[in-house]
C-alpha cells in the first residue's frame, strides 16, 4: 500500500478526532493552546496504538483469512465508513454534549478510546493485507494529532457551519479506500 493511500486512510480516521476537537474548541473560556496540545498527544497516541493493536490481533489469524483478505479489508472500511456517515446525520447536540462535559484526564482518555476504535479495525485490515505496521501507524497517529490541533483552533469558526457533518466526509473517504482495495485485488 502506498503512502498516499495510508495518508488518505489517516485522514478518514482523523475525522472523529477532528469532530471532538472542533466541538470542544468551539467553547469560549478555554486555554486553546493547552487543549490542542493535550488532544494532539492523546488522540495521536491512541490512533497509532490502536492501529498496532488491531494489526497484532489480525496477524494471529492471517493464515486463516489470507484468501479473503481483500474482502475483509473492504467490508471493514465500508462498515466503518457507513457508521461514520450515519453518525454525521445524527443530532449534533448529543455529540456536542458528550464532547464538552469533560474536565478530567479520564474523560479525555475515554474520548481518545472512542475515537480510535476505527483505527483498531483498520489495523486488523492492514494485517490481513500483510502490510508492515510501523510507518502506517506513525502516519495515522501524526495525522490524528494534526487534525486534533486543527479542530481545536478551527472550532469557533467552523462549528456553526459543519457541526458533526464532517463525519460524512470521513465515511465517504473510507468507503472509497475500501472500493479501491477490492478493485485492486479483483481486477
Could you list some keywords that capture this structure?
single chain; 187 residues; mainly alpha; 8 helices
Describe this structure in words.
With 187 residues, the protein is mostly helical. The chain has one domain. Helix content is 85%, strand content 0%. It is built from 8 helices and no strands. The protein starts with a helix and ends with a helix.
Number of helical segments with 4 or more residues: 8
Estimate the mean pLDDT confidence.
81
**Shape descriptor:** globular
Structural class: mainly alpha
Q: What fraction, in percent, of the residue positions are helical?
A: over 70%
| Integer-rounded radius of gyration | 16 Å
Distance between the termini: 16 Å
Largest sheet: none
Strand content: under 5%
Order of helices and strands: HHHHHHHH
User: How many discrete structural domains?
Assistant: 1
Instruction: Tell how many strands the DSSP assignment holds.
Output: 0
Low-confidence stretches: 93-104
Amino acid at each position: 500500500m502506498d503512502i498516499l493511500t495510508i495518508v488518505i486512510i489517516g485522514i478518514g480516521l482523523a475525522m472523529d478526532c477532528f469532530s471532538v476537537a472542533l466541538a470542544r474548541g468551539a467553547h469560549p473560556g478555554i486555554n486553546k493552546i493547552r487543549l490542542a496540545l493535550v488532544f494532539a498527544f492523546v488522540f495521536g497516541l491512541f490512533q497509532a496504538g490502536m492501529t498496532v493493536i488491531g494489526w497484532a490481533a489480525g496477524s494471529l489469524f492471517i493464515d486463516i483469512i489470507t484468501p479473503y483478505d481483500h474482502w475483509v479489508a473492504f467490508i471493514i472500511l465500508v462498515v466503518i465508513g457507513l457508521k461514520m456517515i450515519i453518525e454525521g446525520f445524527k443530532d449534533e447536540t448529543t455529540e456536542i454534549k458528550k464532547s464538552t462535559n469533560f474536565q478530567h484526564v479520564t474523560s479525555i482518555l475515554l474520548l481518545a478510546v472512542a475515537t480510535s476504535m476505527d483505527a483498531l479495525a483498520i489495523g486488523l485490515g492492514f494485517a490481513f493485507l500483510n502490510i508492515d505496521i510501523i510507518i502506517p501507524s506513525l502516519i495515522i497517529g501524526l495525522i490524528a494529532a494534526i487534525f486534533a490541533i486543527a479542530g481545536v483552533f478551527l472550532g469557533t469558526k467552523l462549528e456553526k457551519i459543519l457541526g458533526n457533518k464532517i463525519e460524512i466526509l470521513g465515511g465517504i473517504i473510507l468507503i472509497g479506500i475500501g472500493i479501491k482495495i477490492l478493485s485492486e485485488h479483483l481486477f
